[in-house]
Amino acid sequence: MTLDRVDRVLGLGSPYGDDQVGWHVAQRLAERGDVSATVVALPNPTQTLDYFEGALRLVIVDGCQSGAAPGTIYRWEWPEAPLAPRQMRSTHGVELDAALRLAQSLQWALPQVVLYCIECESCRLGEDLTPAVAHAAVKLERRIVQELNSQEAPGYE
């Protein structure tokens, strides 16, 4: 797949409660008129490989579980992202880590890869986002817009 050289935001998720947060942030960003990035919601982290080629910057949004307070926002840059098997893991940790490592092993020219995670509270099928995670999603949407529109990343909690 050949795509124009642009920033890309990939929201990872599933229909399981707070695990929808990546999809939710992606949808909100896609509906804005001030985001020039390509924004996509994905159910499978291995699909991120389809969006590496030609990307200037790849921002991945996912839910995570570490035992911190629900709604806590984390930001890392690959390869420093603490994915499985470490203590902090994205809800899609193993697959996302494998996809990024595969791209690296294939010696692809990786763009800057930024991983944002929001601490999940409940990941039950059919539930909506919990209030803390929904609030964090709105905050993260603003942060991502700020980061996409600047050369330097904003401060983080």
Structure description:
- The chain is α/β, with parallel strands linked by helices and 157 residues long.
- The chain contains three helices and six strands; from the N terminus they run E-H-E-E-E-E-H-E-H.
- Strand 1, helix 1 and strand 2 form a beta-alpha-beta unit.
- The chain is globular.
The major β-sheet equals:
6 strands, mixed
Treating each run of at least 4 consecutive H or I residues as one helix, how many helices? 3
Helix content: 25-40%
Number of domains: 1
Based on Cα principal axes, name the global outline: globular
From N to C, what is the helix and strand string? EHEEEEHEH
Averaged pLDDT, please?
83
Instruction: Give the N-terminus to C-terminus distance in angstroms.
Output: 36 Å
Low-confidence stretches: 84-89, 152-157
Query: In the CATH scheme, what's the topology name?
Result: Rossmann fold
The CATH architecture can be named as 3-Layer(aba) Sandwich
Level-1 CATH class name = Alpha Beta
Radius of gyration: 14 Å
Quickly give the structural class. alpha/beta
Number of strands: 6
Sheet-strand content, in percent, reads: 15-25%
